[in-house]
Every structure is written in structure tokens, then in C-alpha cells.
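Dear colleague,

Following up on Tuesday's group meeting, I ran the structure prediction for the two-component complex that the binding team flagged. I've pasted the input sequences exactly as they went in, so you can double-check that nothing got truncated or mislabelled along the way. The C-alpha cells for the whole assembly follow below. Feel free to forward this to whoever is handling the docking comparison.

Inputs:
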Amino acid sequence: MKHQYRLGIDAGGTFTDFILADRKGELRIFKALSTPQDPTQAIRNGLAVIEEETGIAPRELVSNADLCINGTTVGLNALITHTGAKTGLIATKGHEDSIEIRLGHKEDGYRYDPDYPPATMLVPRYLRRGISERVISTGAVHTPLDEDELREACRHFLREGVQSVAISFVWSVLHPDHELRAAQIVREMMPGVPLTVGSQLYPQLREYTRTSTAVVNAYLAPILSRYVQAVDGYFQSLGARQPVRYFQSNGGLALGSVVSDRSVYAINSGPASAPRAALYLGEPYGLKDIITVDMGGTSFDITLTRDGQANVSKNIDFLRYRIGIPMIQVETLGAGGGSIGWIDSMGLMQMGPQSAGSEPGPACYGKGGEMPTTTDANLVLGYLNPQGLVGGRLPLGVEKAREAIRKHLAEPLGISVETAAYGMFTIVNNNMVNAIRRVSVERGYDPRDFVLNCAGGATGAHITALAREMGIGKVLVSKLASGLCAFGQIISDVKYNYMAPIAARLEGAEAAKRLDQTFARLEDRGRAELMADDFAPERIGIRRSLDMRYVGQVHECTVSVDPFPIDEAALDRLKAAFHARHEELYTYAEPHSPVEVVNVESAVSGAVERPARMRIAQGAGAHAALSGTREMIFDASGRKHETPVYDGAKLGAGDVVTGPAVIQEVTTTIVIEPGWVAELDGNGVYVVTATSGAAPAHKQAKALAEA
Amino acid sequence: MTRPKPDPITLSVVRGVLETTQREMTLTLEQTARSSVFNLAHDYSTALFNHTPEMILQGQDIPIHLGSLIPAMKSVAQFFQGDIHEGDLILHNDPAHGGSHIIDTCMYYPVFYQGELVFWTVCKGHLTDIGGPVPAGYNPNATEIYAEGLRIPPVKLWDRGRPRHDVMNLILTNMRARRDQEGDFNALIGACQVGARNLVRLMDKYGKQVVQDCIAELLDMAEAHMRKLIAQVPDGTYTGTAVLEDAGHGFGDMDITATVTIQGDGCHIAISSPPQVPYFINSYEGNSHSGVYLGLMMFAQLPPPYNEGLYRCVTTDMGPRGTLCNAKSPAPHMNCTTTPMETLTDAVRLAFEQAAPAKVSASWGHANGCNIAGWDKRHDEEYVTMVLASIISGAGATASQDGWHACGPECCFGALTSGDIEMLEHSYPIIIHRYSLMQDSGGAGQFRGGSGTCWEVEPLDSPMTLVTFGEGRRIPAMGAAGAKSTLIPPKVGRLEVTRNGQTQVITENVIETIQPGERAANRNPGGGGYGNPYQRPVEKVVEDVRNGLVSLEGARLDYGVVIADAATLAVDHAATARLRAA
């Protein structure tokens, strides 16, 4: 870091987190209320808070910062609330309905539900125009582009006041000329209207995915570019040395001009920085296989890195819209501090996905919430300090929590309040465990081979219980856990994805040459884009991925490799990587079957210098930080144990806390269950490990069943 | 019963693990199968059974697969009674043993724990082909089941852990597209094993007895739930009759009647149908369970999880043996999962509409689609597939909303996925000229039925055989609560073959050869509407017109809305009021 500061600004639903790093390794978190109506207002407010608390004026901070980084939810919010731009779609005639047909599928879980509505159309049918033109699967032109029809569509859009246009034709990835010519005509006839071209945004096979991705992009582009303009302008006015970088759902940073054009990359950026943060925390220990769990008020986000690489998803449904571009895989579950415990129509106890949110919030907040929530359970179990969360700013009412649990769960089920509270805790943990299987087991990984990393304010109470349920023996909890995603953003690199379809069998010199040239073309573009942004060639890194399958299969499996020159001999290396991945995922490989590659992608990144690590002074032993004891419950019997409580701010490096215990940090509470030991390291990370005496998950479960 | 009451928390946890197990079985099928019917279309189902064997978890996969798995599992277990061992794996497709149609092939894997049979993991998948004279199995000319394909009674594929390669080879030798078939069999086997692994781990963790107690409790809870729903329906006998149209077989239209008798918290559903016919629309008894249960679920509208406890208070009678819905060997049956099952489902739904008018929703479009086959010059090999995109119809409207577009057919209830058109064109030598919604296809009503779809295809460079199946080309999907359509032709399905500029409309099941340069368009019906269409708000009708879902003519005929100006969509309110008053 050449300059004094680095500033990260991560907008969330309720709060916008500000993280300020300085060159000495000091890291501070500030919060301001989010202002969805005018997102730049929250930035101004946050900088005012920083000035108030530190005396550093916004201009002084920004002009002395090497980099200002912003994770924004403006795109996400517009997609959730359906308040994007009025968008028109130009499609191949006969295929203008693919985004409404949605492959003819209704989501699981609502099979017989008469009230579950169809997904809201981002482009209603009267703004979708089919144009005569057709390219076929060989790349040949079957029907030339009818320019008159296209012009008529533009006139229609102009009459209707369309603010953004997407163009997506069938097989345009093999022959983009029709789309490019159509783009020319749209630009002529609709000057100044943002335009998204399917084959440029997402040059991969699958028409529905490409069209849907283009539509989401077009829907958000005007919103993002307006936002970027405001933020860039504000930071320029404060004397910023570098343009603001925006955080993307691919886990990398991007220039404002890029997220304005490729807005779809900005939609789920929030939790996408967790893998980077996890690897940073694990680095001193050589840990590269890490599952990060982030529990907030209403949701629980899971990410995974294996061998230092984050799981990536492509071609997924996000908020009911199909999106193709590579995004960090984030499995989200409706399980948070506000998740409500209830009894379903069959008589089974459930947790969530309904949430009491922050208004009225859990019953113990005393703001009118009557339903029992995860937070209420944790309070009754003694894990949370009744004096309050967030350093005492939010006192909690134990009696209100007990009453809610008694009325809605314990009495109807005929069990004690304590047992019901432990039941709520157990069920929400099991829901989370089942969700963690989706990023691990379903990706071919055994979660027991991973370390669990704690992020988010509400996770600490559950983290050792989750590890126990998963059979994981080591847990990391950073002192920055509650703001870990914001922190992840300021240590991320600039990253862009470049894609191409290829559709070739992995055989012969010709195929090797095509692959090699395709990657070279993609990566030359990437290097040029990053060098124009002042990255020296030695700071540019490349990671390749290939979507491959056995000939005859329909589903591809993605294989990720470091770059190497591809000649005929190198094809064997690629094939070997594919066989291995197939076996890892599906329990078998077919080494003698021919292999084909369908799509390729290069992720090109420019390394950003890391700020210095946090330093914690040597401690004098945990006893010095003991602040008292509380009665806590650790099993379904409901029996209370007098349990020590430590003040995290007073713990020093090398201090060891043996469970059962609770460590209270200002913004999070860490429960160390019996059988676990926590040691604070010099970088501000609690390393929590299971001791040999820890009850294996199955014994605990049996005890529960017998209780 | 002396069974101890399991603690409510473990119960919820076990329920969660069962659902995760089923999900992971389904995922294994989806990701490892070879054929596109499996892979793109999700035409497969998974279920878990206890040792009894009673279904303890029904996947949310294809509804019409799952009802029949209940009698099929019982039949298979009985067939091998006393001869079921650890490491056995049983294959079966025979409708005379509770199967649906023979192209739906089932795999049954007994799960042993400490030497004792505890569970079965089961899955079923629609293969690309099952041998027989017509590729992909649908042979409208068959007069006996023997002319439809390979019939497999329960047979062990593995015997105490030893794969019986000779049996497997016998089966594969009798099927087209062997490479796909091997991949699909592996997928089915893999899914069963993934399920077994999870169940064993569950028992390791909680103990066998606790798990079994929890499962028994889950079955009881489902039973109590369904009984409660049925008890809310006034006692009495209710009947519903739906007409199965003559799809060109010449046996005429047929009535299928469901008689639902409600007494207290129990329910008896009796089906009556005409004698079986020498045409592929007969349903054996096991398959008919699926239609009955689907009609019941359209009334019950329950969220998951689903298990056999739901059906304990329901008794069924599919009518005399040798009738259309209780066929006996050697009746041909290949079309049975759609025809007559969707008509049977409608009959049950109509009977419940009489019994519980507040909980009714309209019928969905019935399946009428096609299979294609031919030679793929690109790889010099034969291709054959069912085209799922060709059966995507509209969903029925409900008491609260319009029907979903493109979500049917009724027998699948939105569980299918039709596959990406570029992937289909990559896999088969075809050009798909159209896959779109159809104007005026949704049934008229206060809530409109969902739109059906049109799928239009041209072979790329060599002749293609196209085999159609199903019905719904003359009688539109039935509405509910007084819904009524006037403009009928766009609401029913048909096949349109265009050769040399001449379009031939076909409403019967046929085998056609289509040459490059010629096109075949398969149209699927929309869903039924709900409530009086004249009560649909005028602005919603105008919105449908703006979106091209309803034509000016449709607005006038179906909804009594007169639009005076096609450009501005201005409504002639006086004329509208006159029409709607009539």
C-alpha cells in the first residue's frame, strides 16, 4: 500500500459497512444506515461517521487512499423489487417467449400450491419482438436478418418509451453477425439507449440462459450506470487518486464503466467476497479448503474454497431468473437470527424461512414481535448477553423470549421451554447443515475435509455446533467476522471473465490448435483491458475453465486449470483433469469414452496489493479477560451449566479459552461448546479446535433422541 | 399402538435428512444420465420406502410416476418374498406388476442395516427407448403390449452384490441407442446407492429404532392431516365424468367416471371406464393409482413432504379387470401415463369440485406431443428421443390466479423441463423454428388458463420419423367454477405438417415422415379457466390483448370485451356492457 488508507464500502439491506485499513495494519469498521432511495447518501453519511469518530475528513481520507472499493446492492434491489428499466427484447422470430416459457418448469416445493405465482416478467410480451433471421447449429445462415422488421421493432420500442434494449438470437454465438448488425441498427434508431448483445455479454451455448442473462443485464444497466456515475463523481470531487472499483459476483473488482455495461455481474456481490476473506485468514496456516458460513438477520449464506479456488456457479436460477455468467457459488438459506419457529400443518416443528426481520424483530427485542426466533432461542439458552447485543445498545428481554417459545412451541408440543429452545437451535443448525451439503457433497467434496470459517454477526453462537454436526474439527472466527465480507472486498483483485463457445472433441492437432487460439484470443483481450487500467503484466493472473462432457452426455462438468500451451499432447492433460473431476462428482469416470468441450472461459485478474494484517498484542492468559458467568444449556435435557464469559476485547494473542465458554466481541458472540478450545492468534483470528473429548455428532444426537 | 412417541426435534431433523436424501438421489439422476429425456427433461422420479414396504418419502418429481410406485414396490417385494438379500438390485417395468408404462424403468435397492432389511431406495426413469417396432416406444399401431417393447417383470440385476452381466446384456441387446441406455442404467443405480448411503448414515447417527419410530410418526402425521382435510368435506357421494376424446383410433369418445364417497374422515374413490381397447391408451391398475392420487392432490393442495400416510384413509376401486383404467394383459398401454390418466385425473378432480367447491382449480392442458427418430449424419448414428418441449401445455387457473403459461401437461404438474433449444439442435439434427406461447390458447375465465405452446421442427439434412401421441385436440382443458370458453380451436392441440407450402392439419395419433425443407408444428392446449369470464376485469383482458395472449376476437367472444381500436386498444365500454349483460 503506497498510501495511507484503503476504504471499503459494502452496502447491505439494513446497514452499509465501512471498512478502513491503514498502512500500519489497523482495521476499523463503521456502520451507517443504508439508504436504498439514494444509495450515495449512505456513503456520505458513513464518511461523516468516520470523520466524527476519527477526525479524518472525507477529502483527507479519499485523497490519501490508494483505492476506494464499493460493493453495491442497487442492482440486486432493482431485481428484487422489479424496479429496473423498461426493457425491450429483440429475439429470433419463434423464440421470443423463451424467457416466459422458462423451459416449461415450475420450481420444486410448490407442485400443488394454487397460489404460487409465476415469475414476474422483466420484459412483458408486448416488448419482446421476434425478428426473421436464423443461424443453425452448424453456424450457417438459414434465414438472413430482416432489417425492416428490426426497424419496425425499434419504432415500436420508441413509441413505448423503452429505456434499455437486449438483443439475443439463436446460435448467435457461432455467427454473431446478425446480432452485431442488429445492434448497429438499434444504435442508429435509438441513440443513447443502453444496449446488451447476447453473444458479447455471454458467448456460451444455451439460448434460454443467454437470452435471460442479456435481459437481466439490460434491465439493470441504466440503474447501475446512473449509480456509478453518481459515486464516481462524488469520489472524484473528493480528490480520489484512482477510479472507484466495484465488487462483482465473480469475486473480483471492476471499473465503473464495466459494471455499467455488464451490470449482471453486480447482482449478488455481497457474499461473493467471503472466499477471498477465508483464504486470507487461512493463509498463515496453509489452509486452502474452507467453508465460510455467514448468518445475518434473515439469511444464511454459504461459500466454499477448495485448494484455494472458490466454487463457481454458472447457468443458475437467481431470484427466479436464469443467469449464465460465472458467479461465486453462494448457497442461501432462509435461516437467520430472525427466523421464526413454528409448527407446520403436519404438526412438525420448523425454523424459518419466515423471518421477523428487524421490525418487529425477535420477541426479545420488545418491539412487538410475538413469534419465537433463533435469537430468542439463543437468549434462553444463555448464549447471548441479556444486557444486549452490539455493545449494550440493544437490550434483550429474556421473559419475552421464553413466553414466545412457551406459547408457540413448548406448550403445543408438550415439552419444556428449555428443551424447545434447544430444539429450535438444533433444527436451525440442521437446516444449515443440509444447505452446506449443497456446496460440498453435491460438488463432490466431503465437508469433513474442510475448515469452517465464521462470518456475519449471528453466526458465532452456532459455529461450534455446526462444525460438530458436520464432523468438522477446526473453526476460524476472525475478530472482523461481522464485517468479513466488506473486508474481503478490500483484499480482492480486479477480475474479468472472457468466454467463448467451442464445441470440439478433444482429439487431434486441429482441435488443440483451436483451443489454444481461442484461449489466446480471450486472454489477449483480458490483458489489454487490465493493462489499460495500469496493471503491469506481472500482476496479471489467468485461470481457465472448460465445460466438458463425454460425447453423448447432455450435462457438462466444469474443469478449472492453470494456463499451459495446448498442443495435441496437452489434450491428454485436459482429459485427465476431466476424468478426475467426473469421478469426484459422480463416483465414476469413463477413461475410454471420447470427450468433448462445449464452452471455455478465462478469468483474468489484476492483483491488488494487500493491506497489512491486523496485529494483536500478546495476552496475559484468558483469566484476565473473564468478565463473569452465565447459566447456559448445551443439550436437550435443558439442564443449566454455570458457564464462563470472556470479554474478547481483553483477550490477547496466545490466550486460550476452553469450552464450555462464551467469548463476547463487540459485534458478535462466540459460543465455544463443551469439547472445543479457542486460541486467539496474533492476527486477530480465534482458531477453535475440537478436543479428543468432544462428543461425536452421533452420540449427541442419540442423547437428544433419548432425552 | 405401543410405539413410543419420538421427540419432536429429532423428528424434524429426520424429516430434513430424508428430504436431503431424496434431493441428492434426484441430483445424481439428473447429472449422470445420458439421454436427453432424463437429463434435459427431468423425466425421472425417486422415492424411499420402509421395509413394509410403505412409501416414506415421495420425491417432488413427476406426479404421474409416483402414485404407481406404491403398488409397484409392493408387487416387487412380494415377488421376491423370502429371497431379498443384501446387495440385491431389482429391475422392473412391467405394468402387470404395478409399473406405469414399460418405458419407465424402475430400480429397487433394498437397504440392509445390521443384517436386516430396513429400507428401499427406488427410482424410475423414462428411457429413450425400450425396444419394440417403433423407436422411443410409442406405437399407435400396437394392439398388444408385446408390440410395444420389452416387458421386464421383477428381475435381479445384482444378486447379493454380484452384477448379473448376462441379464443386463439381454436387456440392452433388445434396446436402441445402447450407449445412452447404459448411462441411464448407471444413473438409476447410482441414485439408489446415494440414497442408501444417506439412510445408513442416518441410522448410524440416531440408531435404527429411533429412525424407524420417527418415520412411523411421519406416516401417522400425514395420515392425520389428510383425514382432517377429508373430514371437512360433507359426507356424501360425488361423481365426476370426463370425456376421453377419440384421438383417431376409431373406438369413439369414452366416458371415465370417478365416484368419490366421503364418510367421516375416510374416502373411497371408484373409477368406471369402458372395456379396454386394442390401442395404446389402456392403463393397468398400478398406473391408475397415479391419476387418482393426482386428482386427490389437486383437491388437497398440500405442501411437501409427501408419504403414503396421506393415502391410508383413501381406498380405491379401478373398476372391473379388463376395462380401460384397470387393463389386463395383453392390453397395449404405452400412452397410459398421459392418456387416459389425465382424463381420469380430471374425473377425480370434478368429483371433488362437487364435494369441496372452495378448493377447486381448473384442469391443465393434456399432453399431445411427439417422438422423433432418424439418422444423424454428423456422427453417422441413429437418434431417437421423446420431445418434451412438444408436450408443454398450459396450467389450469386457480381461485386466486391465472394459470401458469407453459407449465403442463397435467400429468407432470410443472415437474418437467423441456430443455434448451440450442442443446436439442446440438444433440439432434433438427432445426426448431418455433417454441412459443399461443394466442387464445388459455381457457377463458375470471382467471384465465395458462397459454399452451407451439413447437415447430424441420429435419436438418435427412428424413425424420415423427410419432405423435396423446389427445386434447378436440376437447379443451376443462374450466372450473363456471368458466366457459367460446373460441375453441386455438385452445386445443393439433399437428400441422407443411409440405410445399401446403399445410395439413392432423388431429389423430400418426407416424409421419418429414423431409428436410418440410415442417411439423405440434401445438399443445392451454389450461382451463376459473370462474365466469365476463367477470374478468376489462383492463386484464386489455393487458392480455396487448401481450398478444388474447386476440381481438378472443376478447369479444370469450370475455365479452369489445376493443374499438386495435392500435390504442381503446375499449368500447357501451358495447362491452351490452355483451356482458347478455
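Confidence is low (pLDDT under 50) at residues 695-700 of chain A.

Cheers,
M.
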